[in-house]
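ok trying again, last paste got cut off:
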Amino acid sequence: MKLGKISQTQPSSLSTMPVLQVLHLAGSLVSDFYYNLSIIYAKEVVQPVGVSSYYAVVNPDSLWQLGTSLDSLSEKMSLQDMIPRLPQIDVVVPHMFCFPGMTSFRALFEDIIGIPVVGSPSHCTALATNKAQTRSIVSASDVLVAKAQQLRAGDKLTMQPPFVVKPTSEDNSLGVTLVWDESQIEGALKVGFELDETLLVEDYIPGREFRVAVVEDEGKLSVLPMIEYLVTEEHPIRTVHDKLELKSDGTPGKQPEKPEVKPVCPANVTPELFKKLADAAKKAHVALGCRDYSLYDFRVHAETNEPYLLEAGLFWSFGKISMISRMLQADGQNLEDVALQLWSAAAGRTRVACSSLFKYSTSQQVTKV
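nice, full thing came through this time. structure:
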């Protein structure tokens, strides 16, 4: 998969390229955990030639900071004071992972303020951030999902181990427990309910685990080289410690250098399995209403070799540590070129009222409605 036009730009033309004004949206008002996680990724974002970057950071105390870098942020201010101080912005690149960051703040900037946002719109990310809703939508488009039960406090559990207990709207494997026998159920539910009012109890799928990315290029869906996470009998699922090194206070410090479940990219897959995974990811992308890019976790059953979708992750911070960035690099592509191409395309989207909704189209596609 090769994204096209920007990667073919000759160096002599870069000096005359118009400046793209990009607002990097970071932080979290939910918790220090998600605030620190966002900042880790925002620090790594690429800075392509032809881009002028600005940063807006929300803190867990609900106050905002602005600046031309994360090292030169302003004093804290309210949202009402922050918005008028924004410079002229062409496009927003979000680096937020908490639920409001994935949903409400995208809607604020795109639907309310009217600045295009890179990535999926807020109504799409709201669905994908909820694992139970994701399952319902993609399964209606013939994407396989494991048998599961949604559980609220006081509900009767009807599933039998082995299964995985996970909060429906958390990220980075927070609150996730693999339950092998009945003696572990009570503890797993307690951990999950500390983080969410609703849990997803899902059959454990033995086999290989993959991460699959879909990227749009002028309307065409392409799938990048995949990542395989080398699960073992000792480490059959990925935990938060495979994704983040936690500080003594429980907040994220950085990505682990030697996770127990090691990632390999590109994954060693047969053409047949690649097609199965790619087809399922594309179906999920369309079913969820994704835009620009999307990311999915799959388990491939050890006996049937069929892929089962675990969850969607509609984020990409455009830094070298991001998973989609690693896939691009495995494909021999230049991250800065692709970032500039996608950001420029998003900046060219025009918002148009359409019945009770907004449509987002390129200027060439806009018609009166």
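cool. The CA atoms of residues 106 and 121 lie 7 Å apart. The first helix runs from residue 11 to 14.
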